[in-house]
Amino acid sequence: MAATMAAARERGEPGRRALYFCGSIRGGRDDRALYERIVSRLRRFGTVLTEHVAAPDLGVHGEATGARGARCGADRGGLRPGSLHRNCTRPGGGRPQPCRAPPRRGARPPAREKEPRLRLRVSEYASGWEEAAGGDKLIHERDLAWLQQADVVVAEVTQPSLGVGYELGRAVALNKRILCLFRPQSGRVLSAMIRGAADGLRFQVWDYEEGEVEAMLDRYFEADPSEEVAASPEPTA
Asked: Which residues make beta-bridge pairs with 97?
């Protein structure tokens, strides 16, 4: 707990809970606007370590870390996704990398280059993918550090996401308090590995409707912080 408070102080929020929010990124961004509402409400109850999950400029290709997902002109110039080109480099310069930006609708395909340029060295491809893997490694290590600092983990689990499932598994191993929010009206069925993990105390799964997400968060966090929150409400119809 002392370490958590110290981390919160470093972020300019002395004495506040550290909250870790999980939501889908590469698994799909259909619920991004809902994530924004959740993060906004969570700020009432503590410091949200993972506010970026709700960022409007964060797409399905993840964060721009100078590797996979690096920003370039490909989305404006019609360059082929996955191609290796000179416009997609690390901030401040560096080797070209595999571009993940989608082509602009109606954009012309890139002109064919002369035969010698088509024979890209294997080392260039290998270097690009190594840099992409390095970016993912940094994200993984950073998020795990935040997860270790967190007092409470809140996850919106309606959109299936491998990353969210992984984060929840690590949170259980760290004995974190966990609240999972799921919308049955989506037509999806929540994984048994999530719903079946609920114990009504440290790990809770609450079904809800989109319009009541703020009220659900209020109910969870307005309980006495020294006690466990009451068991999950009855699933909504």
From this structure: 85
